[in-house]
Amino acid sequence: MLSDCRHCDACRRVCPVLKLGVPAFPACYETSERSPAVWNCTNCWLCHEACPAGINLWQKKALAQQQCIPPAAIAQGIDNLKATGLVFPFTPELNERRRAYGLEPVKLLDQRKLSLLIS
Ligand code: SF4
Ligand code: SF4
């Protein structure tokens, strides 16, 4: 619960994830900040922009995610991102398949730049 929250519901009314009936970042409501629902957020920040109290929902959500172990699929994406800069798993076969469809090969990020971005 946020002490400066006005309980106006604006953050929830604009959230595209909640509109789909999927639990999302709880903003200021009853859901525990340790809920895995914080990982359903799309980072659109409509809630942050809509908040009339000027609560930094961006920061609150980032803190909530640090306190909550991500679901396995998201954890895998984070590991992939750290390793290659891509959220999906990269294997040489991926570029073989892309070439077969006439697509450019996926270019991996320079490891030095990647570690600077992620650290
Ligand atoms: S940033 Fe997340 S919680 Fe906020 S409106 Fe977008 S999807 Fe919903
Ligand atoms: S928009 Fe801001 S003030 Fe309104 S309910 Fe959400 S967090 Fe509270």
UniProtKB/TrEMBL annotation:
Residues 3-52 form the 4Fe-4S ferredoxin-type domain. SUPFAM superfamilies: alpha-helical ferredoxin. Keywords: Iron, Iron-sulfur, Metal-binding. InterPro entries: 4Fe4S_Fe-S-bd, 4Fe4S_Fe_S_CS. Transmembrane segments: none annotated. Pfam families: Fer4_10. One of its GO terms (molecular function) is metal ion binding. The keyword Metal-binding applies. The keyword Iron applies. This is 4Fe-4S ferredoxin-type domain-containing protein.
